[in-house]
Every structure is written in structure tokens, then in C-alpha cells.
Amino acid sequence: MKKRLRMNSSLTEYLEGTLFIAPWLTGFLVFMAFPIGYSLFMSFQNVTITASSTTTEFIGWTHYRTILFENGSILYNDLLPFLRQALFMIPIIVIFALLIAMMLNQPFAGRTLFRAIFFLPVILATGEVVKEFLMQGEGELGFMAKYNVSGIIGAYLSPTWSTPLISILNSFVLILWYSGVQILIFLGGRQTISNSAYEAARIDGAGPWETFWKITLPAMTPFIFLNMIYTVVDLFTFPTNPILQRVRESEYGQYSALIWIYFAIISVFLALIFYVFHLATKPQRASR
User: Which SUPFAM superfamilies does the record associate with it (predicted)?
Assistant: First the structure.
């Protein structure tokens, strides 16, 4: 009798759990799993859409060969400049967010207001608003023209690398746009560090510079890693991303192949970040 009651109780818990996750599971299967699977299927098809029907013809790896080896303009013309720009933007965004979070963690009058101001662009500005700002030149830094920074950068770097760097500096509002969530994560991470560690360091004679390198930065390493992952995903899936804009213009089968190639590129970027994080934290793991 007791065994039967335990079984009924377990079955009830199982049914309750299933019932609670059923809406999420249904949404995932209908709106995520099926489109992803169908996208993979279409990447191997020649898709023809008419007013009355959609026909598909299996063509194997043709779309992938075309994009990667035969017609480079589909992917590489937009991808390579974007990757160079991303290589500059990712560290700039993470370092900028870390410095701002350190400042916003200090006690000063109006701290809550400044925290809200730095997060407001994430809430208020859409991709189109930012795009309009940039078109009107509102994101430029005044000292760029005043001190001819573009000319100095162009004199020391090749056009391949100077062009994306100047482009970032000329649209610096993007850094602010991309940094709101990272600042919030860094603020949360900074508050996990015990004040007693800083007090002990001050008693031992450590200054702000030493405490930053010996206490703050090592403790913030997991949050730096998290923010780098977030920044890569956010940067590579932003609506004004040139690759995603290119995807929308392509034929359906080719579009699907292109997006799967792009997915592989993002995965490589994330794998590199995991590898760098593994190397960076190796001494910390060894000292435990």
C-alpha cells in the first residue's frame, strides 16, 4: 500500500513537472526546433516558391560550395571587414564596460542615476534608432577631427586594419549601445567580492592599483569571460549586422546554407574565447 502511494506521489510530481514545462517545450518545438531543422533541410535544396506551392529539389552541398569556394562575394565581401571590426570592438566593449562598472561601483552622489543613464540605450534605442544616429554623424567623437586621429591611425596601420578602427571611433555610440548589459554584469560581479579582502590589502599597504590587479581582476575573470561570450553573440546577431542583412537578400536555399556557415563561424569565435579563458585561468586552477 505504501509502495503504491509512493509511486502515485512520484507519478503526480512527474506529471506536474511535465505540465509546467509543456508551454516552453511546445514553444521550443514549434518556434525553434522546427525552423532550425527546416533551415538545415533547405540548405541542401534548390527552393522554388510560387503563388500556390513551394517545391524543393535536393542538390547536396552545392550551396555550401558556391558560398565558400565559387562566389566569394556572397560571404567574404561582408564577412572579412566585419570580422576585423569585431576583433577591435569585442575587447573595447569589454574593457569599457569593466572601467565604467568600476566607476559606478564607487560611492558618489547620483550613482543610481548614472547607472540608469548607462543602461538606458539598451532599453530605449532600437537598432534603427542607432542606425539613424550614425547616419547623422551623432556617434562621432569630437577630438577625432580636432586632433586628426584618423590621419595618425592611417599613417601607422594598413588600410585593412585602420579602416575598421576608424569606423569604430567614428561611431563610438555603438560602444555605449553594446555596453549596457555588460556593465550590469560587471557591477553584479564586483559586488560579489568581499570588502574584507580590500580592507586586508589596505592594511598590508596595497594601493588602488595593486588591489585592482591582485584582487579585482582575478575575481572578475569569470564575468569577463561571460561578457565576452555575450558580446560575441550580441555583436554577431545585431539586426544591422551586414551578414544578416545579406542573408535576407539571398535565395531561400542559399540563405539557409549561408546562415549555417555563419553559425559555424560564430561557434569558432566562441570556441576561441573558451580556449583563451582556459589558458588565462590555468594558473588560478593550478594554485588551488
Answer: MetI-like
